[in-house]
Automatic annotation (TrEMBL):
The chain crosses the membrane at residues 85-105. This is Laminin EGF-like domain-containing protein. Keywords: Membrane, Transmembrane, Transmembrane helix. It comes from the Eukaryota. PANTHER family: G PROTEIN-COUPLED RECEPTOR-RELATED (PTHR11319), OUTER MEMBRANE PROTEIN PMPC-RELATED (PTHR11319:SF35).
């Protein structure tokens, strides 16, 4: 059943997943495939993993697989590639540096203007 998770093919306990979209296994198909001698699940852990959608793992499919990150509770999203993250970080750093330089330049101009004003008043 989509949206539900079970720890073992022999267990009668079925739990509702916190994120129903993460639990995509069809229990009856999984049970059939696990009952065959060549089945894809020779352990409860494999059965558990087969129930989870792409990017999800663990109990109730509530854990993000490596390469995925939680975007909100129980929702995993594929991470951006490292070069993209580095480029975004560099852009943020450059924008912040430009802001600081602009702020310092304005402060210097304001101080020069005040000093010029004081000289006129004397």
């Amino acid at each position: 059943m989509e949206g539900y998770w079970s720890s073992d093919p022999r267990s009668n306990q079925v739990h509702r997943c916190p994120n129903p979209a993460a639990c995509q296994g069809n229990r009856s198909i999984l049970l059939e495939s696990c009952s065959s001698s060549n089945g894809p699940c020779t352990s409860a852990g494999q059965f558990s993993a087969l129930q989870c959608g792409s990017g999800y793992s663990g109990n109730l499919c509530a854990v993000c697989k490596p390469g995925y990150a939680a975007t909100k509770p129980f929702t995993c999203r594929h991470c951006l590639p490292k070069p993209t993250l580095l480029a975004m970080g560099a852009i943020v750093l450059l924008v912040n540096a430009a802001f600081v330089v602009s702020l310092l330049w304005r402060l210097q101009k304001q101080l020069q203007w005040r000093q010029g004003l004081k000289a006129l008043m004397l």
